[in-house]
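In response to a reviewer's request, we include the raw inputs and outputs for one of the modeled complexes. The three entities were modeled together in a single run.
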Amino acid sequence: MGRADGNGRLVSSPGANDAGTGILHVDMDAFYAAVEVLDDPSLLDKALIIGAPDARSVVSSASYEARRFGVRAAMPVGQAMRLCPHAVVVPPRMARYLEVSAQVMRVFSEFTPLVEPLSIDEAFLDVRGARRLWGSPGTIAFLLKRRMLESTGLACSVGVASTKHVAKMASTISKPDGVLIVAGADTAAFLAPRSVRTMWGVGPKSAEALEGRGIHTIADVLETPVDVLNRALGGAMGERVWQLARGLDAREIVTTRIEKSIGHEETFLNDVSDVEFLRGELLRLADKVAKRLRDGGFEARTVAIKVRFADFTMVSRSQTLGEPSAVGQRIGQAARDLLGGLDLQQAVRLIGVRAENLIPAGTAALALWDPDEEWRKVEDALDGAAARFGGGAVTRAAFVGRRDRATGGRGEADAVRRDRERERDRGRDRGTDAGGAPDGPGPGGAA
DNA sequence: TCTGGGGTCCTCGGGCGG
DNA sequence: TCTGCCGCCCGAGGACCC
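The model returned the following structure tokens for the whole complex.
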């Protein structure tokens, strides 16, 4: 596997046993901070905190020098400065990080086309098919590190394993600037002694729930019946932890990802009680969301708002639009309607707008397509003969289904139901404009 | 000391139609 | 005609990740 260096870091040497592996997890080291050093070498070896200087911002990233003083990501900048008063605070430059991220991803793709970006600075790579070109997975890990440094000037850490979950854990343990190879046969021994908190997907809440039952390590999980895990964590999660603890993780590398939502949110410097101001902010955020929808070629079927109050309690409300939209005014109006339904006794700390249930722009027009008419054409053309299509009988339902798949709707049944709900809402909301449903057929609604 | 912003995925209850 | 079951979607909320 590897040797420990005394700081909890565990690394492998070139030539370590990599039998049974094929998945790499590559994670850039202190990415934002490293990019800042790259662009300004005078910051080298300095304690560096990436975060906006305003009162309510948190640390986005910190150099390892700052981490030595206890500075961590997501910590309030003020607190970080108390821990490390000599640190240099640099506001984040997302555009620059995205630029470097593209270079990083290009290096990944030199080794395999099977790259699954996880975030701006990390990815899974499936190198099982790259052996003849580059060598074994362990060899590729070391080659990739060298190539990354030559090409971008940045260091990364690499986990090599038989599954995504173990590769991810391995890269974390090898940080910074390490490689950790966990051969297939070593997986159980690698996992057993580690804290449940090191499992990917087990956060503070789940860890607390497990530890409250005396389950501290992955070895403890192995001795726990799955129904106990299910009770502690909830059905699917318990099952997953049970499997991951056994090294079972069938997830493949997913190279394409479709965006599912686009949102913007903002924390105010001071809590806000002025409802008119909040309504204005919603419109501004909705415009930003709408622009991104249009840039990405999307329309949103659902608009959601999120409000965090001064006491940090959070509520969200969402509404399905009568027709999908990428228009700021329409999204903003829906967001304002949703805000109108909230009890705003308390001042608001954060407000956000999110577009959900995205569909490709233009497909909403298909909602106006009449499947009955299309079906009549088929009947005419075939003159009643039994038609076959894609291995199944052609039915009118197939046309309805095709339309609904294209528009993301779920058919006439839903459209009828939504119409009824809208009628009911109209009755309930008479005299106010909050929660008012827009006109027009629902997504997938009958023409 | 006082907790960002961008996301994803999951659960759960309710409603609905087949 | 009524009822139960099932699958699906919606909406709210929570946990998690970087």
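As requested, we also summarize the result in words. Residues 31, 60-61, 73-74, 118-122, 200-206, 237, 302, 304, 314-320, 410, 414, 417 of chain A lie near DNA strand C (CB under 10 Å from a C1'). The longest helix of chain A spans residues 275-296.
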